[in-house]
C-alpha cells in the first residue's frame, strides 16, 4: 500500500474531476452567449466531448501541432496552431470578451513546463473572457479578475480547478 | 447531447472500471501465491499501480517496446519485449500454472487490432494461469477454462471484463 496515488489513480482522478467540472459548467453557461476555448488538443478526447455536449457553440482549439485521433480532429478553421505564448495573446485580441468557457488542459508531469504554461495562460487568457466566463483547468491559474470556485460533487479536491471571471468596472 | 459516450467518457469509464476491478482483484488474490502478468505497458500507469498495491508480487510486463514514463518503467528483468503472439506462448510455458492475476490492457480503437490481440490472449494465456487465477481485460476474452464474472460496484457494465480460471481435472 502507499499514501500517494499511483499514476493510474492520478489519471483517473483528473479525468473524473474534469468530467464532473465540464458537466457542471455546461449547465452554468446554458443561455449565456459566448464561444469556447480548448487549450490543448492532445488526442482530441475533450474536444470530442465539448462538441457533443455543446453542438451549437463555436469551439477553438489551441495546440502546437495536431496529434489527435483522426475522427477527433477539429476543422482547420477551429484550430489555432503554434506556441501558446504567441497564439493566446493574439486570439485574446481577436475574440476579445467573447469566451464563456475555457478549458485549459495543458499540464504534464514536468514542473517546469507546468509552471511556464500556467504562467502563460494566467497572463494572456483574460482579455478573451466574457463577463461571467468559467475557466476549468488541470493546473492552478491566476488570471486577473477571476476567483476560484469550489469543485462540484464527484470531483476530488485539487484534481481540477474552476475559476469565474468578472469584468471589473461593469 | 448525444447517446453514445464521448471519447473523454470512453476513457473515463474504462479507467474507472479498471480501477474498481483491480481493487476488487487485489483483495481476492490476497493470501494466494502467484505472480502477476501485465499485458501492455503503455505509459506504465497500470504497472505503477500494480507495484504499489502488490509490492511483494513478482510482476512481468509485456509489450512490443518501452514507451513508458521513465519513472514507470519496469526493471529489464520484469519486461518481456516482443510481439505478444510470440512472447505470450513462451512465457506461458516458462511460468506455467503460476499466474494468479493477469491484467490485459491491449485494446485500441481498431477493431481489427482488438480482434487479433484478443484472439492471441485467449489462445495463449491459459497455460500460465494458476488455479483460481483472475483475468482482468479491456477486451472480451475466451480463455479455455474461464468463466466471466460480474463487475464489482463502481465499474460500468462492459467497460472492463473479469474472468476466473479453474484448472479442469483438479
Q: Helix proportion of residues of chain A, in percent?
A: 25-40%
From the N-terminal CA to the C-terminal CA of chain A, the straight-line distance is 53 Å
Task: Please compute the radius of gyration of chain A using only Cα atoms.
Answer: 15 Å
Strand arrangement, largest sheet of chain A?
A: 3-2-1-4-5-7-6
Structural overview:
Two copies of one chain form a homodimer. With 170 residues, the first copy, chain A, is an alpha/beta fold. Helix content of chain A is 34%, strand content 22%. Chain A has helices at 7-29, 45-53, 84-94, 111-124; strands at 35-39, 59-63, 79-81, 99-104, 129-137, 146-149, 161-165. Chain A has a seven-stranded mixed sheet with strand order 3-2-1-4-5-7-6, sandwiched between helices. In chain A, helix 3 (84-94) runs parallel beside helix 4. Chain A is globular and about 45 Å long. The mean pLDDT of chain A is 95.
Gist of the model:
Chain A is of the alpha/beta class.
List the SSEs and their pairings:
Two copies of one chain form a homodimer.
Chain A: H1 7-29, E1 35-39, H2 45-53, E2 59-63, E3 79-81, H3 84-94, E4 99-104, H4 111-124, E5 129-137, E6 146-149, E7 161-165
Parallel strand pairs in A: 1-2, 1-4, 2-3, 4-5
Antiparallel strand pairs in A: 5-7, 6-7
Helix pairs in contact in A: 3-4
Name some characteristics of this structure:
homodimer; 170 residues; alpha/beta; seven-stranded mixed sheet; 7 strands; globular
Amino acid at each position: 500500500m502507499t499514501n500517494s496515488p499511483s499514476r493510474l489513480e492520478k489519471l483517473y482522478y483528473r479525468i473524473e474531476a474534469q468530467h464532473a467540472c465540464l458537466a457542471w459548467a455546461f449547465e452554468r453557461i446554458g443561455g449565456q452567449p459566448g464561444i469556447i476555448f480548448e487549450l490543448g488538443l492532445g488526442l482530441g478526447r475533450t474536444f470530442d466531448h465539448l462538441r457533443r455536449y455543446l453542438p451549437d457553440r463555436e469551439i477553438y482549439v489551441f495546440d502546437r501541432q495536431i496529434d489527435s485521433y483522426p475522427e477527433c480532429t477539429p476543422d482547420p478553421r477551429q484550430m489555432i496552431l503554434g506556441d501558446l505564448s504567441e497564439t493566446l495573446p493574439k486570439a485574446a485580441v481577436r475574440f476579445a470578451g467573447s469566451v464563456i468557457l475555457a478549458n485549459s488542459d495543458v499540464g504534464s508531469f514536468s514542473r517546469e513546463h507546468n509552471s511556464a504554461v500556467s504562467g502563460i495562460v494566467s497572463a494572456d487568457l483574460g482579455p478573451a473572457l466574457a463577463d461571467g466566463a468559467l475557466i476549468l483547468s488541470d493546473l492552478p491559474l491566476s488570471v486577473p479578475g477571476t476567483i476560484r470556485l469550489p469543485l462540484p460533487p464527484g470531483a476530488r479536491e485539487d484534481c481540477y480547478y474552476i475559476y469565474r471571471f468578472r469584468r471589473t468596472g461593469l
